[in-house]
Structures are given as C-alpha cells and as structure tokens.
Amino acid sequence: MITPPPLRDDCFALPAGVDWMPVETALALLKEKLTCRVASTELPLQQAVGRFLSSDLYARRSSPPHANSAVDGYGFDGTLSDQSAPLVLPLIKGRAAAGQPYQGSVPKGSAIQVLTGAALPKGVDTIVLQEDVATDGQEVAFHGPLLQGKNTRLMGEDIQAGQCVLSKGRKITVADLGLFASVGIADVPVCESLCVGVLSTGDELIEASQSADFGQIYDANRPMLLGLLRRLGYAAVDLGKAPDDPKKLRAQLDNAANKCDVILTSGGASAGAEDHMSALLNSTGSMALWRVAVKPGRPLAMGLWQGVPVFGLPGNPVAAFVCTAIFAAPALQQMAGGGWPVPHGFSVPAAFHKSKKPGRREFLRARIREGRVEAFGSEGSGRISGLSWAEGLVELGEEAATIKPGDKVRFIPFNALGL
Ligand code: AMP
Ligand code: MG
Prior knowledge:
By secondary structure, this protein is α+β, with helices and mostly antiparallel strands. The longest helix has 19 residues, at 317-335. It has four domains: 23-38 and 193-335, 3-Layer(aba) Sandwich (Molybdenum Cofactor Biosythetic Enzyme, Chain A), CATH 3.40.980; 41-63 and 161-191, Molybdopterin biosynthesis moea protein, domain 2; 68-153, Molybdopterin biosynthesis moeA protein, domain 3 (Beta Complex); 346-417, MoeA, C-terminal, domain IV (Beta-clip), CATH 2.40.340.10. 39% of the residues are buried. The radius of gyration is 31 Å and the shape is elongated. The chain starts with 22 loop residues before the first helix and ends in a 6-residue tail after the last strand. The protein is built from seven helices and 28 strands. Helix content is 19%, strand content 30%. It binds adenosine monophosphate (AMP) and magnesium ion.
C-alpha cells in the first residue's frame, strides 16, 4: 500500500537535506573557475567592433598632434591682448589652414589668418574669432581683452603619445575606432571570437519549419540562444537537437567538443529519468549540478566535456534565457577575454504587487512605462511571450519581501546585459 507525500504549495520548496546554492556563490565560482580560452590576433580597425582587446593599447602619437586653432579667425601672440583697449594689428601675407600649415613665423605684434584645425604658426598662441574682427586685408582690428591661448587646442590635450588609451579586456565600441585612429592605431590586437555551440535536447522537439505531431513542440531555445550569442558578439554554432538517448547525446557532445570553445545545452539538466545531460556530465566526474536558488532556474548543470565547459541550461525557455543572461553570459565574456561584467541596474518604482518568499533570488520579466516598472502578468517559465513583452528583468534579492506599487526595485534593462 502506497501513501501520497504531503502536498507542497511550491514546486521550488527545498527538498530535505539539499543545500541550494546562492546566486552570488554560483557567480563567484564561475568567475574563479573559468578563464580566457581564446588566442590573440590582430584586426584592422573596421573589423574590430565588438571584439575584446587582447592587450593594453598605447597612443602612437598625441591627439591633437600639434597645437591648432579651434575656430576660423586671426592668430597672434596673446601676450598682447589682455588689455581692454582696441587692438589694430598688421596682417602678414599668407594664411594657415588645416593640412596647409604656415611655414614661416609671425612676428610679435602682427596677425595672420588662421582657419579651424590649422597648426598654429610659430609666434601664434591665441586666435580671435573671425566674426569679432574688422579687416581691410592689410590690418585686423578687434577689442580685447582676450585670454592668451583663447580659441586654440593644446598639443596632446586629449591624449599624450605613449599614454595607455584602452586596456586589455575592453569590448571595442564604435567610438573606440575613432579614438584608435586619432592616435595612429590602424590594427588592433583582439581576442579570437569565442566559439559557442548550442544544442537542444528532448524527444519532443521539432523545428519550427516542420509539421508537428501530437506531443511535439517547436524548439524555441535554439534560435533564441543562437541569436543571443550572436548579439553578444560570439561565433555561435548551431549543434542541432539531441534526442533523449544518452548514446546519441554523447556522440553529439563529442562532436561539439571538437569544434567549440564552450557548449550551451538546454533541457535534461535536472535529475529526472530523461535528464540525460546531467547524467552524462555527472559520468565524467567533472560535473557540478548546481541547485542555484534562483527563479526561474531550477538546476543548472555545469561540467567539462573533454575539457570543454558545458552549461546545461534548464529546458523551459524563460529559465534558459534568464540562466544564460545571468550565469552564462558573464562567464562567456570572461572566457572570451573580456573580463567579468557586472550589469548596471536602476532603482525604479514598481507598478506591480508581489509577495516573495525568502531563500532565492527572483528575476521577473519587466519593462518601464511612464517611470514605473511593470512585471509580466505570469511567472510561468514556459511563457515565452513574456520574454518578448519584456525589455529587461527585475531582480529581487533572497530575502522575503512584499512589493507594493511605488516601492523601489532593481531593474536591469536587456541592453545592460548586452542583449
Ligand atoms: P527539461 O528541462 O528537459 O525537463 O524541459 C523542461 C520543459 O522545457 C519541458 O516542458 C520541455 O518540453 C521544455 N523544453 C525543453 N527544451 C525546449 C526547447 N528547446 N524549446 C522549447 N521548450 C523546451
Ligand atoms: Mg527534456
């Protein structure tokens, strides 16, 4: 005679004797254990956006490389001009323009026409704005006082030659391309792209393009995770699907380990009868089945397959997405040579009610409207429409809490996660 177990009001209730790993501990372990897995190469500027610098970069030249004019006007020796009396200076022939420097020197007490970006001629350290002078072509007249150095840019005022412009690990932005070019850097030392494979597991999965039988569902995780990885700048490799069959799964992992630096799998990561991912990783002896105290999440299986790190993500799409964004993404960045990122969150008043139990960290699908953060109506971790609705996540700490409209909560926009 069998008897039913007591009812649980929460599927995340801690099984007796199981220690749930706090999110902070899981992140600290990943940060400590996973190091850069890619070599260094050199790329021309145009191809370097989104890549990680593989060494510190130093300016080859100062910027600006020479003192120059910030305006169109007339240049002269500025020690003359700190009096309020009107000044009338003889103009010398010629002019200084950008790319066409004046080769001679300007005697003290004379002025010369100088255009924006022109290197200051010898004898010139101050420029009076063209609009502020009268000239007949022979002389130029204007009112003082004018601070010495007015309307000029100093040599090296932005960057000095030899200065470190950006450090190893920097994710190169479009603005960085301008910065590099301005100091004479044409080729950039970068990390090779991290190659990340994505494998879906489960007998129920078919492609969205296929016709579906009863009991089958479309594989939502693979296109989503491949897109996410590409968005983060990695070389994402589509490893297809694996059935719930340990032999076939093993063969697919062998193949994946040959061509990828890291593998993300989804599904089969807990300890059920068809959870072959965790069973296989377990058999290598390298696995840590982390019962991370996070919602949505459930167990996150971590292991090495032939030396290649494997993230065994939960199958539920929302959990797969959140675990990738929160746990895998920073680890991938570190393995890609970029160091460990910490996403910027914002404290925003809530537009929702929520009662939260203690003991685990929760991430809600959320978005900001009119200065308040809204949470998706359902917390079901299969409800992909909520991910699509959301523009970020609300992060609620481990402590119990009742959140009322107007209470401040931490909102992390997807773009702060690189998504
Ligand atoms: P599992 O982690 O394998 O127990 O899967 C948990 C739930 O997620 C099940 O309902 C699966 O059918 C679903 N699931 C697993 N993989 C995927 C996938 N690639 N796309 C959509 N749903 C999935
Ligand atoms: Mg499954």
